[in-house]
Amino acid sequence: MSARWRLPIPCILVLALLASASEARLYRWVDDQGVVHYTDTLPPTQVERGHAQMSDKGVVVDTTAPAKTHEEVQREEELKRFRDAAERAKKQQEAADRVLLRTFRSADDMVMARDGKLASIDVMVQVTRSNIRRQQDWLRGLRADAANLERTGKAIPAHLSDSIGKTEKSIREAYSAIVDREQQKQEIHGSFASDLKRFRQLKDIPEAAEPEPEKATLSLLKNLVPCTSTEACDRLWVRATAYVRKHASTPVQASGPNILITAPPDQRDDVSLTLSRIQDKQGTGASLFLDAQCKPAASGDTTCTAPEARAILDGFHDAVLGQGPGG
Known about the structure:
Layout: H1 9-22, E1 25-30, E2 36-39, E3 51-55, E4 60-64, H2 70-103, H3 107-151, H4 158-203, H5 215-218, E5 224-227, H6 230-247, E6 252-255, E7 259-262, E8 272-279, E9 286-293, H7 307-320
Helix pairs in contact: 3-4, 6-7
């Protein structure tokens, strides 16, 4: 049976050639000079450069895109990182929006919350200032004792020197706490302003003019001078002490390499100044901080609100850095 249908070998060869011819393919590719080529085999150099495969009738049956260059791969990876970061930021914003809407019912609620936080910080600052005044009085007494001993030719005992050093350090640390808290107030103003704007956008509430933060808060940095090294601080300290001696209305009572204090105010218009060198917590630099003390009000508050005192504090930063008048 099988022998009846067996084809002669020449017939098999013909059929194989016909089948091969029916499956013939052409390759269309472009060389470096931009010349288009049609060949039945693809040069090895063109495998990764992109080409088209065509049937014997000239119909494109397959295309191979050029392999991506290193720069293209980097651009795609960078674009993916950008899209992923944008997606994360979007999700974070959506989560923050949900918290904002759950926390506050109205813009007035946000203003009240902000003012409450600011008021609590003001209370802590006022308590710290009261402690500073007591420490300053104690330091004046210690230095007076040391001066009396020197006038009589006696040596200053170690315990007295230690007490002076510890008291000065305590005053500087207290001023450092005040600076930190005042900077917290700046951050609270900025954070609530951003949240309030976003809340109004989410609630479709028209923008409203917000009252500006109190000038004393905004001008804090004007009586704070940062310095990046001991040498820079030493140079600025000379200018700062000259500024204090020029503008204080009371005489200097305590003076050291890290602190300078003038006598407490006696008259209503007196402005007592305290200059302190505050070491950065990271230990890489320091800041010179100027504080003003005026005659206590009926409430006992010694915070200076007079224009003259405010002008002294506002002019400190630029004068010490040589950027304005008043040095």
